[in-house]
Design brief:
about 270 residues; about 70% helix; elongated
Length: about 270
């Protein structure tokens, strides 16, 4: 792997970016840059990529950051051109190019909201590499979450209402970017969305639900405990107590005891 020399990289990108109107030539040149900085000492799927089945160049994160910075202006100046590029990038085999596609989606203006949603929906539902979906949801939805978070919730509700286990899992995973977005203040909407999953906590979703509770606790421990106590009172599921006990380590000792008391009262 060649070390990233920012001056050299910026010269390389300065020569490549003007070719963006020719998508095929641009992607060819982009791949050459990734190959130049690729780390071939890591077998496919080993760290530092963090994605375990897709081919990878294993390039430093700064490379995607610099490419994204250079392409960002086209997201507002010529969004259709960028959408065409995004579609090509997503169908390239390497994880870095798919990540770049997701990041570019998140940079598109509000006028292209439905274009973004369409791609997130389609790629999520057809994906043969589900491990990249959290990255897709986190990055591709960033613009929508900033300007119209309710539209993102609409998509999650659509998946949840489909009554298919794999779509329900997508809806559960897709709520995490909203929880982690400090600009999103409507936590009650999150609690409302996950209530059906929590009061009847299917073992198939335990890991995902525990991850959500962990993220909610980081965001607001007090509100999360209040929500869980209400969920406990609403639930008649015999596995509810076991699920709640698995969440206790996320809370302070006093909040843990409060939840234990709610479980005792339920019994």
């Amino acid at each position: 792997m060649s070390a990233i020399n920012l001056t050299r990289l910026r010269i390389q990108l300065g020569l490549l970016i003007p070719q963006i109107q020719d998508t095929s030539a641009f992607i060819h040149g982009l791949r050459e840059i990734y190959q130049f900085y690729a780390d071939h000492t890591h077998p496919v799927g080993e760290p530092p990529t963090g994605v375990f089945t897709l081919p990878a160049f294993n390039t430093p994160l700064v490379l995607n950051r610099e490419i994204l910075f250079n392409l960002s202006k086209y997201c507002t100046e010529d969004p259709q051109l960028v959408l065409d590029l995004i579609d090509r990038l997503w169908h390239e085999p390497e994880v870095e190019l798919r990540q770049l596609a997701a990041q570019l989606l998140g940079k598109l203006p509000p006028d292209n909201e439905e274009d973004v949603i369409k791609r997130i929906r389609t790629w999520s539902e057809e994906s043969t590499s589900p491990e990249i979906l959290p990255f897709l949801h986190q990055n591709a939805s960033s613009g929508i979450r900033k300007t119209n978070p309710e539209r993102w919730l609409d998509l999650l509700n659509e998946w949840e209402s489909a009554h298919q286990d794999w779509l329900a899992r997508l809806s559960i995973e897709g709520v995490i970017p909203l929880i982690d977005d400090r600009d999103f203040e409507n936590l009650p909407a999150i609690f409302t969305f996950i209530t059906p999953f929590i009061i009847t906590p299917s073992k198939d979703y335990h890991y995902d639900l525990l991850t959500i509770i962990e993220h909610l606790t980081r965001r607001s421990e007090v509100e999360t405990v209040h929500f869980l106590k209400k969920a406990i009172s609403l639930s008649t599921d015999p596995t509810m107590a076991r699920f709640i006990r698995r969440t206790l380590d996320y809370f302070s000792p006093a909040r843990q005891e409060s939840l234990r008391n709610a479980l005792r009262e339920r019994q």
